[in-house]
Amino acid sequence: MRSAAALLLLVSTCLMATPLPAAGPNEVKDLVDAGEILPFEPIRNRIMADTRGDFIGTEFDHTTRRYRFRFLVNGNVVNVDVDARTGKRLNSRRSY
Questions:
Q1: CA quadruple 66, 88, 79, 50: dihedral positive or negative?
Q2: Which of 33, 62, 60, 84 is closest to 70 using CA atoms?
Q3: Which of 33, 65, 89, 95 is the 20 to 30 A CA-CA neighbour of 81?
Q4: 63-94 pLDDT tens trace
Q5: Cα(1)–Cα(7) distance, rounded to whole angstroms?
Q6: How many CB atoms are located within 10 Å of the residue 10 CB?
């Protein structure tokens, strides 16, 4: 458990140092209101139900209109990319 906590701290530090191009909450709301992307909550609920592991966090990339969900699975960080326009899961991959 101690190594998982250390890994989580390391991942959090790395995420802060090299974030995706992020959109502010107002920009995401504006995109939802304009019908360009789906609301976050239904996407989050489905991805969290379909993905094993501990949820670490999520980011929105406004240039690609994608959400990236991060999970800790067996000591590895797994990124799940989702198209915010369709809600479709695009890929899952381990982060090194």
A1: positive
A2: 60
A3: 33
A4: 999 999 999 998 999 999 999 999 999 977 77
A5: 10
A6: 11
